[in-house]
């Protein structure tokens, strides 16, 4: 993952977990989730939102997950985006271990199992499920997670609000009026 040249991101140093200039944390259960989550990171970078990203598994690295979730707010992470497939416990467990808003994303390959674990959270541990999505559908869940995180942050950030408005207007201009060439 480190070959990417993001301008506004860094990979998470799980050994240190020191204070970060990142305000969005993007975590995923496996390297195999990266193709689904890359568009999420691309949107954050395009809109110049500082973020950090890395791999944490609820099942394989549960201590790493716990340290990350419990330190997030002290490290000034304002929103967490968490992707997991299969028995997707990562987003829900992280949501139960921090007061930061957590947005869940499911990679398409395992949507049907992951969805249940994200939409049926018990009372007291809210998690926002953003959906899945394949490359054919522009990895909509992952990209919407980035846009939703930006909406949360833009509420109190006029510059980011303007950037988001411009992004939305540009998207509308790309939608043609006609089905024909
Ligand atoms: C989850 O299990 C990951 O989020 C991934 O979506 C799924 C499969 O992981 P791998 O077996 O490909 O590492 O933990």
Task: Describe, in plain words, how this protein is organized in 3D.
The protein is an alpha/beta fold and 181 residues long. It has 6 helices and 6 strands. It has helices at residues 34-46, 62-71, 90-96, 111-119, 140-154, 158-173; strands at 9-11, 24-28, 51-55, 79-83, 102-105, 128-129. A 6-stranded parallel β-sheet has the order 1-3-2-4-5-6, with helices on both faces. β5 (102-105), α4 and β6 (128-129) form a beta-alpha-beta unit. The structure holds 5-O-phosphono-beta-D-ribofuranose. Residues 28-30, 32-33, 57, 84-86, 107, 110 line the site of 5-O-phosphono-beta-D-ribofuranose. 5-O-phosphono-beta-D-ribofuranose binds at residues 28-30, 32-33, 57, 84-86, 107, 110.
What level of helicity do the residues show?
A: 25-40%
Mean pLDDT, as a whole number? 92
Low-pLDDT stretches: none
Strand-pairing-aware structural class? alpha/beta
**Count of runs of 4 or more consecutive helical residues:** 6
Topology at a glance:
Blueprint: E1 9-11, E2 24-28, H1 34-46, E3 51-55, H2 62-71, E4 79-83, H3 90-96, E5 102-105, H4 111-119, E6 128-129, H5 140-154, H6 158-173
Parallel strand pairs: 1-3, 2-3, 2-4, 4-5, 5-6
Helix pairs in contact: 1-5, 2-3, 5-6
The protein binds 5-O-phosphono-beta-D-ribofuranose (RP5).
Question: Gist?
Answer:
This protein has helices at 34-46, 62-71, 90-96, 111-119, 140-154, 158-173, and strands spanning 9-11, 24-28, 51-55, 79-83, 102-105, 128-129. The chain has 181 residues and is an alpha/beta fold. It has a six-stranded parallel sheet with strand order 1-3-2-4-5-6, sandwiched between helices.
